[in-house]
Every structure is written in C-alpha cells, then in structure tokens.
Amino acid sequence: MSRLRRRFRYDRDIFVIVACLAVLLAIPQAAVARGREGHQTIVVVAEHYMRPETAAAMRKLLAPETPEEASVWADEYRKDHRQTGPWHYIDIPLADSKIDLVRECTNGDCVIAKTEQFLAVLKDPNAGRH
After folding, report:
1. How many domains, the chain?
2. Closest of 50, 65, 64 to residue 17, by C-alpha
3. How far apart are CA 115 and CA 117, in angstroms?
4. How confident is the model at residue 9 (pLDDT cuts 50, 70, 90)?
5. 129 lies in a domain?
6. What is the pLDDT of residues 23-41, one digit of tens each?
7. What is the rounded CA–CA span in Å between residue 7 and residue 44?
8. Residue 24: predicted pLDDT
9. pLDDT confidence of 4, banded at 50, 70, 90?
C-alpha cells in the first residue's frame, strides 16, 4: 500500500473517530432519551459500523476507559466546568441557510471549532495523551 494511501486511511480513520465522538457530544440529551444510556448506545452502534482497525485505534486512544465510559466523559466534566458547556452545541438561527461562525461560535466556543481543534491534536503524532 502506498504511503499516500496509508496516510489517507489514517486521516479518514481519525476523522471517523472524531466525528463519532463529536456526534456523541452534540446530541441533546432529550434526543437520546436517557443521557448516559443514550450516549453509550450510540457508541455501540457507531463502533459496529467502523472498520475493525478503526475501532481498535479508538479503543487504544481511549484506554484504559471503554468507549462506552468515555462517551459520557464530556457531560460529567461539564458539570464542574461550566465554561465547556458551549463546546457541546452550536445555535444557528432557523432563518439562516448557512453557519456564520463569527456570530454563532464566538471565541471558538462551539462544537464545530472544538471538534476541529481536537481533531488537529489527534492528528499530531507528537501530541501527548493529556
């Protein structure tokens, strides 16, 4: 397999992991019925659709926690760190047809900006675990 093809697969796998985690963080609790249980159910479903090597990379990245345990981490953290609340969503006026990040994501405090920020960290082979 060529280096470019391996790099593309790696980037795609990282994107899938982050996208799944972002979806888990962005879904309002009312939409998943029971907060913790809903997040954990989505992880099980998401992992079912991942390639085996992607699921293994996710599990390695999250170890020693399971993906199910990690899926509720942000909600638990948010309880004591209220400033992270806006990282879980973005409010877009219903009348708008596209996102205005300057208006809806002030100071980079929204799910889109934080997903991009954390994706960059995940892609960085020199980034530490914490």
Report:
1. 1
2. 50
3. 5
4. low
5. no
6. 766 655 444 445 788 889 9
7. 26
8. 65
9. very low
Q: Are 36 and 42 in contact (CB under 8 A)?
A: no
pLDDT tens-digit readout, 83-111 = 998 888 888 888 888 888 889 998 899 99
In the chain, what's the furthest Cα-to-Cα distance?
A: 47
Residue 114: CB atoms within 10 Å: 20
Name the DSSP letter for residue 121.
Answer: H
Residue 30 lies in a domain: yes
How far apart (Å, rounded) are the C-alpha atoms in residues 24 and 64?
Answer: 19
CA–CA separation, 55 and 58 (whole Å):
5
Is there a contact between 115 and 24 (Cβ–Cβ < 8 Å)?
A: no
CB 29, CB 76: distance < 8 Å: no
For residue 98, the model assigns a pLDDT of 85
Range of the domain at 105: 3-123
Strands of 12-110, DSSP E: none
